[in-house]
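TA notes, week 10

Several of you asked for a full example with nothing omitted. So below is the full record: structure tokens for the whole chain, then the designed sequence directly under it. When grading your own attempts, check the secondary structure regions first.
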């Protein structure tokens, strides 16, 4: 399977902050932060962390953001109180810009566990009751919100982080669902993968602190996890093992995840999509294929045989700066890919790259 890339452009938004470094600092008593071309007032976060009885040696990340208070749109600052059922009038739904879309509800972080920040969300529909739930990754853990009535969301509590000490890596927490179980990963270095039986949310109306049903410890931190629901395999990416490539886990028995292999030929994977291929390249019909966003390439791998993954192609592009994520079109003909840093690096508008497979 080979591929080629082209691009099209969209309007670019302004970036309000910048990351200014990631510096190993074990045993170092101080950090010096330099912000090039600085203007205005900045908050700088330095958050060292160390773990005993492990190979992790501590690290401090330095982040800089212009100190402007909570950002807001044309309607003012984002509120700290929930908002419910606000119509779109004159281009605003409360403080949020809108166009022909009403605001069903807004829950600030203070209303869903009071975490410091949020990262990603997923969803689950209970097959028995039809109720819908949002699963929100935060710096404190995974928040559960019943969103069955969109204008009346109900916070049902938090599954705390498996690693009890919140570290600088807590900002990245991702969750996916398979067979009514949530699988949660984080970049926290001792985290592994939590497994939570979502059917326990049935009938709950008040927030509570939840406990995990199982834990997979064979990798520490992971940037993200993808699940192929057709095969029952999870792929943790950005771990400290498998050279950062996909760490493959059999989750067909949801509470007993089992390691099945590594995809490590092309190094670190930031995100992946796993599919049973049914696109236009019939040589690979019925094969389980990973489409890996690998920082500066789209790398495609056949993982049908977990013990012997086969790299099919490795495609880069002229403006590669940080290949971040992508997704196949429904017909399997195109893979749409985005680069996280090409705007800053090359100064052009946001671009989506289209990778095509042979007809």
């Amino acid at each position: 399977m080979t591929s080629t890339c082209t691009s099209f452009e969209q309007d670019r938004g302004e970036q309000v902050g910048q990351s200014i470094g990631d510096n190993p600092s074990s045993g170092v008593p101080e950090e010096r932060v330099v912000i090039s071309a600085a203007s205005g007032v900045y908050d700088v976060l330095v958050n060292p962390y160390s773990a005993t009885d492990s190979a992790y040696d501590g690290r401090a990340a330095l982040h800089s953001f212009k100190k402007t208070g909570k950002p807001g749109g044309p309607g003012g600052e984002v509120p700290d109180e929930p908002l419910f059922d606000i119509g779109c009038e004159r281009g605003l739904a409360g403080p949020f810009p809108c166009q022909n879309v009403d605001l069903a509800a807004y829950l600030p972080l203070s209303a869903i566990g009071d975490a410091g920040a949020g990262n990603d969300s997923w969803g689950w529909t209970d097959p028995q009751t039809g109720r819908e739930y949002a699963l929100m990754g935060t710096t404190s853990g995974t928040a559960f919100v019943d969103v069955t009535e969109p204008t009346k969301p109900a916070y049902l509590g938090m599954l705390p982080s498996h690693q009890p000490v919140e570290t600088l890596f807590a900002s990245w927490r991702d969750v996916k669902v398979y067979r009514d179980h949530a699988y949660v990963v984080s970049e926290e270095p001792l985290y592994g993968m939590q497994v939570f039986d979502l059917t326990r949310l049935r009938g709950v109306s008040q927030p509570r602190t939840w406990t995990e049903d199982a834990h997979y410890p064979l990798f520490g931190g992971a940037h993200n996890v993808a699940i192929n629901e057709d095969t029952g395999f999870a792929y943790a990416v950005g771990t400290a093992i498998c050279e950062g490539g996909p760490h493959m886990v059999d989750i067909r028995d949801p509470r007993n995840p089992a390691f099945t292999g590594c995809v490590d030929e092309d190094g670190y994977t930031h995100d992946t999509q796993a599919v049973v291929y049914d696109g236009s390249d019939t040589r690979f019909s019925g094969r389980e294929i990973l489409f890996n966003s690998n920082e500066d390439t789209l790398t495609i791998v056949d993982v049908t045989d977990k013990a012997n993954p086969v790299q099919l192609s490795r495609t880069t592009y002229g403006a590669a700066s940080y290949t971040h994520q992508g997704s196949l079109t429904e017909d399997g003909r195109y893979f749409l890919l985005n680069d996280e840093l090409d705007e800053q690096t090359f100064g052009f508008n946001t671009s989506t790259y289209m990778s095509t497979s042979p007809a």
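The chain has two domains: 4-16+116-356, 17-67. Use that as a sanity check on your answer.
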